[in-house]
Design brief:
Blueprint (H helix, E strand, L loop, with lengths): L11 E5 L1 H4 L16 H9 L3 E4 L3 H6 L8 H4 L2 H23 L3 E8 L10 E3 L13 E3 L4 H13 L6 E4 L8 H17 L1
Parallel strand pairs: 1-2, 1-3, 3-6
Antiparallel strand pairs: 4-5
Helix pairs in contact: 2-7, 5-6
């Protein structure tokens, strides 16, 4: 019998891509909101979910003044090592939470990101060398950071929660549409 009393914590956590909580880490011209995507945070709060902010490997690697990049430019040994190191820390948290019976409900990412996309990421075959105006494409691959997280979780035999990518790079969708899609998704997770 434990001498500790229970408190009000929900014991449910969501890991969130850095830029959803801090638009200042987005590459220039890509922020859709001034500070944080507060509608997303509100829905997490409505379901009593704790929030764990993941680090931004792009900001750590190239800083806030970086150019727009694509998945193929980040797909290199040095950047993958950074993403693997950050993933290892995230998995330590998830494992620690599992040890004490807490539930990691989901991981929220930004679909289209060359690092944090989960179903799509940006790609440009002709990017590199002299700066020029090029057209980025979206490919059906996760970003480099998410690939490293998934790969390392498999190696460490840690079951990841569902990973959801908010359609942040879909310029045809409004923030409200993105929020409504996410709201339906998180509600379905909590009901299960």
């Amino acid at each position: 019998m434990s001498l500790h009393k229970e408190d009000n914590r929900s014991k449910k956590i969501v890991f969130v891509a850095n830029c959803l909580l801090n638009a200042n880490n987005k590459v220039l011209e890509q922020a859709r909101y001034p500070g944080m995507f507060s509608e997303v945070i509100k829905i997490l709060d409505d379901f009593n979910l704790g929030v764990m902010q993941m680090p931004c490997p792009e900001t750590l690697h190239l800083g806030n003044q970086r150019w727009w990049n694509s998945r193929n430019l980040y797909d290199n040994t040095g950047y993958r090592k950074l993403c693997s190191k950050l993933s290892d820390q995230i998995l330590d948290y998830i494992q620690n939470y599992q040890t004490v019976g807490y539930q990691t409900v989901a991981i929220l990412t930004c679909d289209g990101s060359p690092s944090c996309g989960i179903t799509i990421s940006s790609y440009c075959e002709d990017w590199g060398g002299r700066p020029k105006d090029v057209k980025r494409h979206l490919v059906n691959k996760p970003g480099v950071f998410m690939e490293e997280l998934i790969d390392l979780a498999e190696k460490r035999k840690i079951t990841l929660p569902p990973i959801y990518g908010l359609a942040m790079d879909d310029r045809d969708k409004t923030n409200e549409e993105i929020f409504n899609d996410f709201s339906r998704y998180i509600e379905s997770l909590i009901k299960d």
